[in-house]
Amino acid sequence: MTDTKIAGKPRARVLVVDDEASARSGLEKLLRQEGYAVDAAADGPSALQIAAERPPDVVVTDLKMPRMDGLELLQKLRATYPGVPVIMVTAFGEVSTAVQAMRGGADDFITKPVDFDALAFSIERVIERTNLKAEAEELRRQLREREGEGFEGLIGSSPALQKVYRVAKQVAPARATVLITGESGTGKGELARAIHKKSPRANGPFITLHCAALAESLLESELFGHERGAFTGADKRRVGRFEQANGGTLFLDEVGEIPPATQVKLLRVLQERTFERVGGNDPVEVDVRLIAATNRDLAKDVHDGRFREDLYYRLHVVHVEMPPLRLRGGDVLLLAMHFLRRFAVENKKRIDGVTDRARAKLLAHRWPGNVRELENAIERAVVLCEGPQIDEDDLPIDVAPLPKGGVRIPGATMAEIERFAILSTLDATNGSTAKAAEMLDISVRTIQYRLHEYGVAAKEKEKKGAG
User: Fold this and answer.
1) CB-based burial of residue 298 (10 Å sphere; 0-12 exposed, 13-18 middle, 19+ buried)?
2) What is the pTM of this model?
3) What is the DSSP letter of 249?
4) CA distance 436 to 427
5) In whole angstroms, how far apart are CA 351 and each of 99, 336, 386, 463?
Protein backbone atom coordinates (compact mmCIF):
# COMPACT_ATOMS: atom_id res chain seq x y z
CA MET A 1 0.00 0.00 0.00
CA THR A 2 1.04 3.61 -0.53
CA ASP A 3 1.63 6.11 2.23
CA THR A 4 -1.75 6.61 3.83
CA LYS A 5 -1.58 10.22 4.96
CA ILE A 6 -0.12 13.50 3.84
CA ALA A 7 0.87 15.95 6.60
CA GLY A 8 -1.40 14.08 9.02
CA LYS A 9 -4.55 14.81 7.01
CA PRO A 10 -6.98 12.19 5.67
CA ARG A 11 -6.37 11.27 2.07
CA ALA A 12 -10.03 11.66 1.07
CA ARG A 13 -13.55 11.22 2.47
CA VAL A 14 -15.20 7.94 1.48
CA LEU A 15 -18.89 7.19 1.98
CA VAL A 16 -19.59 3.43 2.34
CA VAL A 17 -23.18 2.32 1.72
CA ASP A 18 -24.17 -1.29 2.52
CA ASP A 19 -27.20 -2.81 4.25
CA GLU A 20 -25.07 -5.64 5.71
CA ALA A 21 -23.67 -4.36 9.01
CA SER A 22 -20.63 -6.66 9.05
CA ALA A 23 -19.57 -5.76 5.49
CA ARG A 24 -20.15 -2.07 6.17
CA SER A 25 -18.14 -1.98 9.40
CA GLY A 26 -15.36 -4.12 7.90
CA LEU A 27 -14.84 -1.75 4.97
CA GLU A 28 -15.08 1.24 7.25
CA LYS A 29 -12.34 -0.14 9.53
CA LEU A 30 -9.98 -1.08 6.68
CA LEU A 31 -10.40 2.26 4.91
CA ARG A 32 -9.71 4.17 8.11
CA GLN A 33 -6.50 2.16 8.53
CA GLU A 34 -5.52 3.33 5.04
CA GLY A 35 -5.89 6.94 6.12
CA TYR A 36 -9.30 7.75 4.64
CA ALA A 37 -11.99 9.69 6.47
CA VAL A 38 -14.99 7.34 6.34
CA ASP A 39 -18.75 7.76 6.72
CA ALA A 40 -21.05 4.73 6.63
CA ALA A 41 -24.75 4.36 5.78
CA ALA A 42 -27.09 1.36 5.89
CA ASP A 43 -29.23 2.47 2.93
CA GLY A 44 -29.62 5.01 0.15
CA PRO A 45 -31.71 7.64 1.98
CA SER A 46 -29.26 7.68 4.90
CA ALA A 47 -26.37 8.00 2.44
CA LEU A 48 -27.96 11.03 0.76
CA GLN A 49 -28.49 12.65 4.15
CA ILE A 50 -24.85 12.10 5.14
CA ALA A 51 -23.65 13.37 1.74
CA ALA A 52 -25.64 16.58 2.23
CA GLU A 53 -23.91 17.18 5.58
CA ARG A 54 -20.40 15.98 4.66
CA PRO A 55 -19.88 15.80 0.88
CA PRO A 56 -17.77 12.72 0.05
CA ASP A 57 -14.87 12.49 -2.35
CA VAL A 58 -15.81 8.89 -3.28
CA VAL A 59 -18.92 6.76 -2.73
CA VAL A 60 -18.64 2.96 -2.42
CA THR A 61 -22.12 1.44 -2.54
CA ASP A 62 -23.68 -2.01 -2.63
CA LEU A 63 -25.92 -2.72 -5.61
CA LYS A 64 -28.70 -4.70 -3.91
CA MET A 65 -30.22 -2.85 -0.93
CA PRO A 66 -33.71 -2.35 0.52
CA ARG A 67 -35.60 0.97 0.25
CA MET A 68 -33.26 2.27 -2.48
CA ASP A 69 -30.93 0.11 -4.56
CA GLY A 70 -27.52 1.15 -5.80
CA LEU A 71 -28.77 2.20 -9.24
CA GLU A 72 -31.33 4.60 -7.82
CA LEU A 73 -28.77 5.97 -5.36
CA LEU A 74 -26.36 6.45 -8.26
CA GLN A 75 -28.95 8.50 -10.19
CA LYS A 76 -29.66 10.73 -7.18
CA LEU A 77 -25.97 11.24 -6.48
CA ARG A 78 -25.34 12.13 -10.10
CA ALA A 79 -28.15 14.69 -10.02
CA THR A 80 -26.84 16.38 -6.86
CA TYR A 81 -23.10 15.68 -6.85
CA PRO A 82 -22.10 15.28 -10.52
CA GLY A 83 -18.38 15.30 -9.87
CA VAL A 84 -18.26 12.67 -7.12
CA PRO A 85 -17.05 9.24 -8.34
CA VAL A 86 -19.15 6.19 -7.44
CA ILE A 87 -17.85 2.61 -7.14
CA MET A 88 -20.49 -0.13 -7.28
CA VAL A 89 -20.08 -3.37 -5.24
CA THR A 90 -21.96 -6.32 -6.70
CA ALA A 91 -22.30 -10.09 -6.48
CA PHE A 92 -20.80 -12.09 -9.34
CA GLY A 93 -24.24 -12.90 -10.75
CA GLU A 94 -25.11 -9.21 -10.91
CA VAL A 95 -22.26 -8.20 -13.20
CA SER A 96 -24.61 -7.38 -16.08
CA THR A 97 -26.47 -4.97 -13.80
CA ALA A 98 -23.15 -3.48 -12.74
CA VAL A 99 -22.33 -2.85 -16.40
CA GLN A 100 -25.67 -1.06 -16.64
CA ALA A 101 -24.59 1.04 -13.66
CA MET A 102 -21.35 1.92 -15.45
CA ARG A 103 -23.36 3.12 -18.41
CA GLY A 104 -25.45 5.15 -16.00
CA GLY A 105 -22.41 6.97 -14.67
CA ALA A 106 -20.70 4.67 -12.14
CA ASP A 107 -16.93 4.97 -12.29
CA ASP A 108 -16.04 1.36 -11.44
CA PHE A 109 -17.45 -1.82 -9.95
CA ILE A 110 -16.02 -4.46 -7.59
CA THR A 111 -17.38 -8.01 -7.24
CA LYS A 112 -18.09 -9.79 -3.95
CA PRO A 113 -16.40 -11.04 -1.90
CA VAL A 114 -14.57 -7.74 -1.89
CA ASP A 115 -10.83 -7.90 -2.44
CA PHE A 116 -9.75 -4.95 -0.33
CA ASP A 117 -6.55 -4.33 -2.29
CA ALA A 118 -8.62 -4.14 -5.47
CA LEU A 119 -11.06 -1.74 -3.81
CA ALA A 120 -8.26 0.47 -2.47
CA PHE A 121 -6.69 0.58 -5.93
CA SER A 122 -10.07 1.48 -7.47
CA ILE A 123 -10.58 4.30 -4.98
CA GLU A 124 -7.13 5.71 -5.70
CA ARG A 125 -7.75 5.45 -9.43
CA VAL A 126 -11.12 7.25 -9.44
CA ILE A 127 -9.76 10.02 -7.20
CA GLU A 128 -6.78 10.43 -9.52
CA ARG A 129 -9.11 10.52 -12.53
CA THR A 130 -11.26 13.20 -10.88
CA ASN A 131 -8.19 15.28 -10.08
CA LEU A 132 -6.93 14.90 -13.63
CA LYS A 133 -10.23 16.17 -15.01
CA ALA A 134 -9.98 19.25 -12.80
CA GLU A 135 -6.37 19.81 -13.85
CA ALA A 136 -7.29 19.32 -17.51
CA GLU A 137 -9.98 21.98 -17.25
CA GLU A 138 -7.48 24.39 -15.71
CA LEU A 139 -4.95 23.58 -18.44
CA ARG A 140 -7.60 24.18 -21.11
CA ARG A 141 -8.25 27.58 -19.56
CA GLN A 142 -4.54 28.38 -19.53
CA LEU A 143 -4.10 27.20 -23.12
CA ARG A 144 -6.79 29.60 -24.24
CA GLU A 145 -4.64 32.37 -22.81
CA ARG A 146 -1.54 31.32 -24.69
CA GLU A 147 -0.44 32.95 -27.91
CA GLY A 148 -2.52 31.73 -30.80
CA GLU A 149 -4.98 29.79 -28.68
CA GLY A 150 -7.07 32.42 -26.98
CA PHE A 151 -7.42 35.94 -25.70
CA GLU A 152 -8.42 36.74 -22.11
CA GLY A 153 -10.74 33.75 -21.78
CA LEU A 154 -12.31 33.94 -25.25
CA ILE A 155 -12.80 30.41 -26.54
CA GLY A 156 -11.91 29.30 -30.05
CA SER A 157 -8.93 28.39 -32.21
CA SER A 158 -10.43 28.68 -35.71
CA PRO A 159 -8.55 30.75 -38.30
CA ALA A 160 -11.39 33.28 -38.30
CA LEU A 161 -11.03 33.86 -34.55
CA GLN A 162 -7.22 33.80 -34.65
CA LYS A 163 -7.42 36.85 -36.89
CA VAL A 164 -9.55 38.58 -34.25
CA TYR A 165 -7.04 37.69 -31.53
CA ARG A 166 -4.13 39.15 -33.51
CA VAL A 167 -5.85 42.49 -34.04
CA ALA A 168 -7.15 42.62 -30.45
CA LYS A 169 -3.69 41.98 -28.99
CA GLN A 170 -2.20 44.73 -31.15
CA VAL A 171 -4.83 47.32 -30.30
CA ALA A 172 -5.25 46.53 -26.58
CA PRO A 173 -2.24 48.61 -25.35
CA ALA A 174 -3.27 51.66 -27.42
CA ARG A 175 -5.83 54.36 -26.68
CA ALA A 176 -7.39 54.13 -30.14
CA THR A 177 -11.15 53.77 -30.46
CA VAL A 178 -12.22 50.30 -31.55
CA LEU A 179 -15.31 49.44 -33.59
CA ILE A 180 -16.44 45.82 -33.25
CA THR A 181 -18.93 44.61 -35.83
CA GLY A 182 -20.68 41.30 -36.31
CA GLU A 183 -24.00 39.55 -36.08
CA SER A 184 -25.96 39.45 -32.84
CA GLY A 185 -24.72 36.84 -30.41
CA THR A 186 -21.16 36.58 -31.75
CA GLY A 187 -19.51 37.84 -28.55
CA LYS A 188 -18.78 41.50 -29.29
CA GLY A 189 -19.21 42.45 -25.64
CA GLU A 190 -16.87 39.68 -24.48
CA LEU A 191 -14.21 40.87 -26.93
CA ALA A 192 -14.56 44.45 -25.70
CA ARG A 193 -14.06 43.34 -22.11
CA ALA A 194 -11.06 41.23 -23.12
CA ILE A 195 -9.42 44.22 -24.85
CA HIS A 196 -9.97 46.26 -21.70
CA LYS A 197 -8.39 43.56 -19.52
CA LYS A 198 -5.29 43.49 -21.74
CA SER A 199 -4.97 47.27 -21.80
CA PRO A 200 -3.07 49.63 -19.44
CA ARG A 201 -6.53 50.62 -18.17
CA ALA A 202 -7.27 47.14 -16.84
CA ASN A 203 -7.39 48.39 -13.24
CA GLY A 204 -9.81 51.15 -14.22
CA PRO A 205 -13.58 50.79 -14.67
CA PHE A 206 -15.19 48.97 -17.58
CA ILE A 207 -18.59 50.60 -18.11
CA THR A 208 -21.17 49.35 -20.60
CA LEU A 209 -24.26 50.91 -22.15
CA HIS A 210 -26.72 49.28 -24.56
CA CYS A 211 -27.67 52.22 -26.76
CA ALA A 212 -30.71 50.56 -28.35
CA ALA A 213 -32.42 49.97 -25.00
CA LEU A 214 -33.04 53.65 -24.16
CA ALA A 215 -35.15 56.48 -25.56
CA GLU A 216 -33.26 59.47 -26.98
CA SER A 217 -33.83 61.70 -23.93
CA LEU A 218 -32.74 58.99 -21.50
CA LEU A 219 -29.74 57.99 -23.63
CA GLU A 220 -28.24 61.48 -23.49
CA SER A 221 -28.61 61.58 -19.70
CA GLU A 222 -27.12 58.09 -19.37
CA LEU A 223 -24.09 59.06 -21.44
CA PHE A 224 -23.35 62.54 -20.09
CA GLY A 225 -25.27 62.75 -16.84
CA HIS A 226 -27.51 65.66 -15.82
CA GLU A 227 -27.68 68.54 -13.38
CA ARG A 228 -30.33 68.93 -10.73
CA GLY A 229 -33.49 70.43 -12.23
CA ALA A 230 -32.44 69.67 -15.81
CA PHE A 231 -35.85 68.10 -16.42
CA THR A 232 -38.88 66.90 -14.50
CA GLY A 233 -37.79 64.33 -11.94
CA ALA A 234 -34.13 65.39 -11.95
CA ASP A 235 -34.01 66.08 -8.21
CA LYS A 236 -30.22 65.73 -7.97
CA ARG A 237 -27.09 65.72 -10.10
CA ARG A 238 -26.40 62.44 -11.88
CA VAL A 239 -23.02 61.28 -13.14
CA GLY A 240 -23.21 59.72 -16.63
CA ARG A 241 -21.41 56.73 -18.10
CA PHE A 242 -18.53 58.81 -19.48
CA GLU A 243 -17.69 60.13 -16.03
CA GLN A 244 -18.14 56.68 -14.52
CA ALA A 245 -15.63 55.32 -17.06
CA ASN A 246 -13.01 58.01 -16.41
CA GLY A 247 -9.59 56.35 -16.38
CA GLY A 248 -11.04 53.19 -17.90
CA THR A 249 -13.07 51.97 -20.86
CA LEU A 250 -16.60 52.77 -22.02
CA PHE A 251 -18.28 50.12 -24.17
CA LEU A 252 -21.21 51.34 -26.27
CA ASP A 253 -23.17 48.38 -27.61
CA GLU A 254 -25.38 48.90 -30.68
CA VAL A 255 -23.82 52.31 -31.28
CA GLY A 256 -25.58 52.43 -34.65
CA GLU A 257 -28.88 53.07 -32.84
CA ILE A 258 -27.75 56.43 -31.38
CA PRO A 259 -30.00 59.24 -32.71
CA PRO A 260 -28.46 62.12 -34.76
CA ALA A 261 -28.57 64.76 -32.00
CA THR A 262 -26.70 62.52 -29.57
CA GLN A 263 -24.22 61.56 -32.31
CA VAL A 264 -23.09 65.22 -32.42
CA LYS A 265 -22.35 65.26 -28.68
CA LEU A 266 -20.60 61.90 -28.84
CA LEU A 267 -18.38 63.18 -31.64
CA ARG A 268 -17.38 66.18 -29.53
CA VAL A 269 -16.35 63.97 -26.60
CA LEU A 270 -14.16 61.87 -28.89
CA GLN A 271 -12.56 64.97 -30.40
CA GLU A 272 -12.16 67.19 -27.33
CA ARG A 273 -12.52 64.74 -24.41
CA THR A 274 -14.95 67.15 -22.79
CA PHE A 275 -18.73 67.59 -22.51
CA GLU A 276 -21.46 69.25 -20.45
CA ARG A 277 -24.03 67.41 -18.41
CA VAL A 278 -27.64 67.76 -19.52
CA GLY A 279 -28.89 71.08 -18.12
CA GLY A 280 -25.37 72.24 -17.25
CA ASN A 281 -22.82 74.68 -18.67
CA ASP A 282 -19.62 73.62 -16.92
CA PRO A 283 -17.32 71.49 -19.08
CA VAL A 284 -16.41 68.04 -17.73
CA GLU A 285 -13.07 66.59 -18.85
CA VAL A 286 -12.66 62.80 -19.05
CA ASP A 287 -9.98 60.30 -19.99
CA VAL A 288 -11.94 57.43 -21.51
CA ARG A 289 -11.08 54.77 -24.05
CA LEU A 290 -14.15 54.07 -26.19
CA ILE A 291 -15.03 50.70 -27.69
CA ALA A 292 -18.20 50.55 -29.77
CA ALA A 293 -20.09 47.63 -31.28
CA THR A 294 -22.89 47.20 -33.77
CA ASN A 295 -24.56 44.56 -35.89
CA ARG A 296 -25.50 47.20 -38.47
CA ASP A 297 -23.62 48.12 -41.64
CA LEU A 298 -22.52 51.59 -40.51
CA ALA A 299 -20.90 52.38 -43.86
CA LYS A 300 -24.28 51.86 -45.52
CA ASP A 301 -25.98 53.92 -42.81
CA VAL A 302 -23.52 56.74 -43.56
CA HIS A 303 -24.33 56.46 -47.26
CA ASP A 304 -28.07 56.53 -46.50
CA GLY A 305 -27.72 59.53 -44.18
CA ARG A 306 -28.65 57.70 -40.97
CA PHE A 307 -25.23 57.98 -39.35
CA ARG A 308 -22.74 60.85 -39.29
CA GLU A 309 -19.73 60.27 -41.52
CA ASP A 310 -17.34 62.17 -39.22
CA LEU A 311 -18.46 60.10 -36.20
CA TYR A 312 -18.13 56.90 -38.23
CA TYR A 313 -14.47 57.62 -38.96
CA ARG A 314 -13.84 58.55 -35.32
CA LEU A 315 -15.24 55.19 -34.24
CA HIS A 316 -13.63 53.26 -37.10
CA VAL A 317 -10.01 53.91 -36.08
CA VAL A 318 -9.49 50.17 -35.55
CA HIS A 319 -12.09 47.76 -36.88
CA VAL A 320 -12.55 44.20 -35.64
CA GLU A 321 -15.21 41.94 -37.14
CA MET A 322 -16.42 39.07 -34.97
CA PRO A 323 -17.05 36.07 -37.25
CA PRO A 324 -20.40 34.28 -37.07
CA LEU A 325 -20.34 30.83 -35.51
CA ARG A 326 -21.07 29.12 -38.83
CA LEU A 327 -17.65 30.30 -40.07
CA ARG A 328 -15.74 29.07 -37.02
CA GLY A 329 -15.71 25.33 -37.73
CA GLY A 330 -14.59 23.24 -34.76
CA ASP A 331 -15.04 26.17 -32.36
CA VAL A 332 -18.65 25.00 -32.11
CA LEU A 333 -17.53 21.88 -30.25
CA LEU A 334 -15.04 23.78 -28.05
CA LEU A 335 -17.76 26.20 -27.00
CA ALA A 336 -20.31 23.42 -26.57
CA MET A 337 -18.02 21.55 -24.15
CA HIS A 338 -17.27 24.77 -22.26
CA PHE A 339 -21.00 25.47 -21.79
CA LEU A 340 -21.67 21.80 -20.99
CA ARG A 341 -19.18 21.79 -18.13
CA ARG A 342 -20.54 25.04 -16.75
CA PHE A 343 -24.21 24.08 -16.88
CA ALA A 344 -23.53 20.58 -15.58
CA VAL A 345 -22.04 22.10 -12.43
CA GLU A 346 -24.86 24.63 -12.11
CA ASN A 347 -27.48 21.89 -12.45
CA LYS A 348 -25.53 19.41 -10.30
CA LYS A 349 -25.47 16.79 -13.04
CA ARG A 350 -22.69 14.54 -14.25
CA ILE A 351 -22.46 14.74 -18.03
CA ASP A 352 -19.17 13.72 -19.61
CA GLY A 353 -19.67 14.91 -23.18
CA VAL A 354 -21.78 14.53 -26.31
CA THR A 355 -22.48 11.51 -28.49
CA ASP A 356 -21.21 11.27 -32.06
CA ARG A 357 -24.74 11.94 -33.34
CA ALA A 358 -25.05 15.05 -31.18
CA ARG A 359 -21.62 16.20 -32.33
CA ALA A 360 -22.63 15.83 -35.97
CA LYS A 361 -25.84 17.75 -35.30
CA LEU A 362 -23.94 20.59 -33.64
CA LEU A 363 -21.56 20.87 -36.59
CA ALA A 364 -24.35 20.69 -39.19
CA HIS A 365 -26.45 23.52 -37.71
CA ARG A 366 -25.92 27.04 -39.13
CA TRP A 367 -26.43 28.79 -35.76
CA PRO A 368 -28.28 31.95 -36.84
CA GLY A 369 -28.21 33.08 -33.20
CA ASN A 370 -24.45 32.39 -33.00
CA VAL A 371 -22.74 31.77 -29.64
CA ARG A 372 -25.77 32.96 -27.68
CA GLU A 373 -27.97 30.39 -29.44
CA LEU A 374 -25.41 27.63 -28.80
CA GLU A 375 -25.20 28.55 -25.12
CA ASN A 376 -28.98 28.37 -24.75
CA ALA A 377 -29.13 25.07 -26.65
CA ILE A 378 -26.50 23.43 -24.43
CA GLU A 379 -28.17 24.69 -21.25
CA ARG A 380 -31.46 23.14 -22.33
CA ALA A 381 -29.71 19.92 -23.37
CA VAL A 382 -28.01 19.63 -19.97
CA VAL A 383 -31.34 20.09 -18.19
CA LEU A 384 -33.08 17.46 -20.33
CA CYS A 385 -30.21 14.96 -20.57
CA GLU A 386 -30.85 11.75 -18.60
CA GLY A 387 -27.64 9.88 -19.38
CA PRO A 388 -23.90 10.50 -19.08
CA GLN A 389 -23.75 12.16 -22.52
CA ILE A 390 -25.88 14.63 -24.46
CA ASP A 391 -27.56 12.94 -27.43
CA GLU A 392 -28.99 14.50 -30.58
CA ASP A 393 -32.56 14.39 -29.22
CA ASP A 394 -31.50 16.52 -26.24
CA LEU A 395 -30.49 19.39 -28.55
CA PRO A 396 -33.31 21.87 -29.30
CA ILE A 397 -32.14 22.60 -32.83
CA ASP A 398 -33.41 21.56 -36.24
CA VAL A 399 -30.74 20.82 -38.81
CA ALA A 400 -31.70 21.63 -42.36
CA PRO A 401 -31.58 18.70 -44.78
CA LEU A 402 -28.66 18.42 -47.18
CA PRO A 403 -29.09 21.31 -49.63
CA LYS A 404 -29.71 20.78 -53.29
CA GLY A 405 -26.38 20.08 -54.89
CA GLY A 406 -24.96 18.87 -51.60
CA VAL A 407 -22.52 16.00 -51.37
CA ARG A 408 -22.46 12.69 -49.59
CA ILE A 409 -19.19 11.47 -48.13
CA PRO A 410 -18.29 8.81 -49.08
CA GLY A 411 -19.90 8.78 -52.51
CA ALA A 412 -18.87 12.11 -54.04
CA THR A 413 -15.95 12.94 -56.33
CA MET A 414 -13.29 15.47 -55.30
CA ALA A 415 -14.62 17.85 -57.97
CA GLU A 416 -18.12 17.62 -56.47
CA ILE A 417 -16.75 18.17 -52.96
CA GLU A 418 -14.75 21.19 -54.13
CA ARG A 419 -17.77 22.71 -55.86
CA PHE A 420 -19.94 22.21 -52.81
CA ALA A 421 -17.26 23.67 -50.50
CA ILE A 422 -16.82 26.80 -52.62
CA LEU A 423 -20.51 27.48 -53.17
CA SER A 424 -21.46 26.74 -49.54
CA THR A 425 -18.69 28.98 -48.21
CA LEU A 426 -19.72 31.79 -50.55
CA ASP A 427 -23.28 31.40 -49.30
CA ALA A 428 -22.10 31.55 -45.68
CA THR A 429 -20.03 34.69 -46.38
CA ASN A 430 -22.91 36.39 -48.21
CA GLY A 431 -21.07 36.17 -51.53
CA SER A 432 -17.73 37.62 -50.40
CA THR A 433 -15.05 35.94 -52.51
CA ALA A 434 -12.32 37.47 -50.31
CA LYS A 435 -13.74 35.96 -47.10
CA ALA A 436 -14.46 32.65 -48.81
CA ALA A 437 -10.90 32.49 -50.17
CA GLU A 438 -9.50 33.17 -46.69
CA MET A 439 -11.60 30.43 -45.14
CA LEU A 440 -10.81 27.88 -47.83
CA ASP A 441 -7.11 28.87 -47.93
CA ILE A 442 -7.17 29.43 -51.68
CA SER A 443 -6.80 32.53 -53.82
CA VAL A 444 -9.66 34.79 -54.87
CA ARG A 445 -8.58 34.16 -58.46
CA THR A 446 -9.11 30.41 -57.97
CA ILE A 447 -12.65 30.99 -56.71
CA GLN A 448 -13.44 33.31 -59.61
CA TYR A 449 -12.07 30.76 -62.06
CA ARG A 450 -14.15 27.97 -60.51
CA LEU A 451 -17.29 30.11 -60.56
CA HIS A 452 -16.73 30.70 -64.26
CA GLU A 453 -16.39 26.94 -64.71
CA TYR A 454 -19.61 26.33 -62.80
CA GLY A 455 -21.43 28.91 -64.88
CA VAL A 456 -22.50 30.84 -61.78
CA ALA A 457 -21.36 34.22 -63.08
CA ALA A 458 -23.11 33.55 -66.40
CA LYS A 459 -26.36 32.75 -64.59
CA GLU A 460 -26.13 35.99 -62.62
CA LYS A 461 -25.70 37.92 -65.86
CA GLU A 462 -28.72 36.12 -67.33
CA LYS A 463 -30.81 37.13 -64.32
CA LYS A 464 -29.71 40.75 -64.62
CA GLY A 465 -30.43 40.72 -68.34
CA ALA A 466 -33.84 39.21 -67.80
CA GLY A 467 -34.66 42.00 -65.29
Assistant:
1) buried
2) 0.60
3) E
4) 9
5) 18, 12, 9, 52
